[in-house]
Write a structure and sequence with these properties.
There is one protein chain. By secondary structure, this protein is of the alpha/beta class. Among the domains are: 27 residues; 129 residues, Jelly Rolls (Sandwich). The chain has an eight-stranded parallel β-barrel, surrounded by five helices. Strands 13-21-15-19-18 form a five-stranded antiparallel beta sheet, with no helix packed on it. The longest helix is centred in the first third of the chain and has 23 residues. The chain is elongated and about 90 Å long.
């Protein structure tokens, strides 16, 4: 047997053994842990100059979409050297299919070119299609058929790629709460409309008859999110080959973590049990998202009420840190603890606004380092290009220059597991403290811990009387609400001029939360902090010490 044949035989055996190992030994959680830090190629396949590839060629344009250059081998190699192990990109379905809903061979060739560049570097490649939930509104009743046809073509064309290629069902799904109409166009009163929108069958949730659910849903939506994700899973698995075991990513209800109702979310079934769920993290919204020149941000709250607020110009309050930990704890509770990994496919912060680099450094360092500490969660940096001079850009792929070198230096250290670990800042305590006032209320969530005392420290200006006072409110395990007002005579003057009120709350059996609420006279009262003492200790993160350590590290 000559040498070339021996080498070929060895290669085939190695490939087979690697395939068997990958699929038999690695769970979905293992794979996501191995994916490390991720980087997005931006909108490289999302363009608006032309309706299809043919027109793009006629325009004699290279693929420089939104100023994002088409990646080269050199680009991918550089990105890898900066510590990234995963590269993600997405395409808009309308740009890669013709009038018959078939894939353009030219675009397919370009897509394969990117995948080849990434996998050649032994990096994971996440490939996502569509743009957002508007697909289901645009396509209407034909949406599901088009969706299945699209993924069936993609899965068959890319079937033979290794497991380092990962398919993501959608990018930026936004299944907003819908309204249910009867045949006369009258809105039907339905409880838990959010759940109906996210469930597998609208009709079963609002009617006992066997009518088709399309008769009941909003005219703009003709498929539930669970129906879509299940179709995605089934379509990919049915194409066979490596696709039967490939890691797949399905979308959350909303692309943002904090805007998802995880209690009502239903995961599809997967025979291979190798799937993850994706979210984005541009939270806090009032720092990261802006939609007009007046620096105002807008969103819908959980009750579908339109909200607005001015954009923040800094990040890093204790509440900001608490929100990240709270979001990750929810991801752990609802997904990773159940064996379902989480991929935060886009992380970023608007860079064209006048913000100090320190805030961006702190946000990205904190989020990516915390990601490393949660089993089965990974995050991908969103990046477009400096060419367009707007939105989110960090790295100029043509000049190999970073907007802020400190950011990539810090991320590189995180990729090497050299970062400030939150596990070093856990303390045993029996106190919960909150400093952030939401309107006129400051709340402490008890999470079923038994409170003994409620302590409120505030600065009083003038008299604390019937026109200006504060009261506590709490909810017990039977949904009874208890209110108890503060009287000035029970306050104890502190050395700094503030007043401390201490209330024994054992008899109220507070269970869910305790609120301190300013009732009128806001101009006479300034709350500094609200603390609840519990009857038993628990492990808590010392946020102030952790933040101080982060700031020291990112500025070294």
């Amino acid at each position: 047997m000559n040498l070339p044949i021996i080498l070929l035989f060895a290669f085939i055996v190695s490939y087979i053994l690697n395939y068997i190992y990958f699929n038999s030994k690695k769970t979905a959680i293992n794979i996501v842990n191995d994916m490390g830090m991720g980087y997005n190629l931006g909108n490289v396949f999302s363009f608006n100059c032309c309706s299809n590839f043919e027109e793009l060629k006629i325009e004699n344009e290279e693929i420089k979409i939104y100023g994002t250059i088409f990646p080269t081998k050199h680009n991918i190699n550089r990105i890898k050297k900066y510590g990234f192990k995963t590269i993600r990109f997405q395409v808009i379905y309308m740009n890669i299919t013709n009038d018959n809903d078939n894939l353009f061979s030219e675009w397919l060739s370009k897509i394969k070119e990117v995948i080849n560049l990434v996998i050649h570097e032994n990096m994971y490649c996440i490939f996502s299609v569509l743009h957002d939930g508007e697909f289901w509104k645009i396509e209407g009743k034909n949406g599901k058929e088009k969706y299945i046809n699209l993924w069936n073509q993609i899965a068959n064309e890319l079937m033979n790629y290794s497991e380092y290629l990962i398919f993501e069902s959608n990018n930026e799904v936004n299944y907003d709460p819908i309204f249910i109409f009867d045949d006369n166009g009258i809105n039907i009163e339905v409880d838990d409309v959010d759940y109906i929108n996210y469930g597998s069958d609208y009709a079963s949730d609002i009617s006992n008859d066997d009518d088709d659910y399309d008769d009941y849903i909003d005219k703009n939506y003709h498929i539930s999110l669970l129906n879509a994700t299940q179709s995605f899973i089934d379509t990919i698995r049915n194409t066979g080959g490596i696709n039967k075991e490939r890691l797949l990513i399905v979308s959350g209800i909303h692309n943002e973590i904090a805007l998802n109702n995880m209690f009502t979310y239903e995961m599809p079934n997967d025979t291979a049990n190798k799937y993850a769920i994706s979210f984005h993290n541009y939270i806090p919204l009032d720092y990261n998202i802006n939609y007009d020149e007046d620096l105002q941000i807008y969103w819908y709250d959980n009750n579908n009420n339109y909200q607005g607020a001015s954009l923040k110009k800094e990040w890093g309050t204790i509440r900001d840190y608490q929100n990240i930990i709270s979001n990750f704890n929810q991801l752990k509770e609802f997904f990773t603890d159940k064996g379902i990994p989480v991929i935060i496919t886009e992380v970023g912060m608007i860079t064209e606004l006048t913000k100090e680099n320190n805030f961006m450094r702190e946000f990205l360092y904190t989020l990516f380092s915390i990601t490393e500490e949660y089993d089965g969660i990974m995050s991908c940096l969103w990046d477009i290009s400096e060419k367009i001079g707007s939105d989110i850009y960090y790295y100029n792929k043509e000049t190999n220059q970073w907007k802020d070198q400190k950011i990539i230096d810090n991320l590189y250290k995180i990729s090497r597991l050299k970062y400030v670990q939150i596990s070093e800042f856990y303390i045993e305590t029996n106190l919960i403290t909150e400093t952030v006032l939401d309107g006129q209320t400051i709340r402490i969530n008890l999470e079923r811990k038994k409170p003994i005392k409620a302590l409120l420290n505030m600065r009083l200006i003038g008299n604390l009387d019937t026109d200006a006072y504060v009261y506590f409110s709490c909810l017990d395990d039977k949904d009874n609400v208890y209110d108890f007002s503060l009287e000035k005579k029970y306050g104890k003057k502190q050395y700094d001029g503030t007043t401390l009120f201490t209330v024994d709350v054992r008899s109220f059996n507070c269970y869910e939360f305790i609120d301190a609420i300013i009732f009128f006279g806001e101009e006479f009262i300034i709350i500094n902090n609200f603390t609840v003492e519990l009857d038993e200790s628990f492990i808590s993160l010392d946020y102030k010490s952790y933040k101080a350590a982060v700031l020291k590290e990112i500025n070294n």
